[in-house]
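Lab notebook: predicted structure, single chain.

Context: the supervisor wants predicted structures on file for every construct in the current expression panel, including those that have not yet been purified. This is the next one on the list. No modifications to the sequence; it matches the entry in the shared construct table.
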Amino acid sequence: MITLAYFLIPLDGAIDKALHGASFPGDIRRELQALQQYGQGSVSVLLAIAIALLVPGRLRQLWVWAIAAGLTGLVTTVLKMGLGRPRPRMREPYDPTLFLGPFGQYPHTGKDGVIRLVHSWDITAGISSDLWSMPSSHTAFAFVASTVLAAMFPRVRWLVFPLAALVGFARLLFDAHYLSDVLVGGAVGYLLTVFTIRTWGARFGFADRPALA
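Prediction complete. Output recorded below exactly as produced.
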């Protein structure tokens, strides 16, 4: 998916503009806005509590989820700050192929009307997260959740992986990410979770090679 994302970067702008003009009924938009939180902190905690209550014998396996989520949060944050890609909603200037890198700066008009140049890693500037388009952390955490749930309960993999993909689509629809951002985020979340399960899973009660997809 990461290789595909690289070749999609030149097409990101056209795909974004097509979705930006798409019209969806209000109920569908609201449902997608809610569903894009799948895999995020509070939803993951609620799912973990439900699993602990319903299947207490699987409680140890939830530690793998926590480790994978921690690794994913670290890696996505480093990539976001290092790549410094403006989100598609940052339309002045609008350049889908722009990556600031760790040293580039982006023009930002403050509340006082003064234009300042800011780095993607400068969290004091009040704009840094708007320069964190790649990778999509929402999509990454959705794939963390789906990969762990598929490993714990293989029968749900046909439900949870499409749900993670739906999170990525919602991030596109709501102008938060480009398609390549979503693909990289999904790959990072999935690969780091597989790595976590392969490395520490046996210690927490997983089979050596659980079904992940």
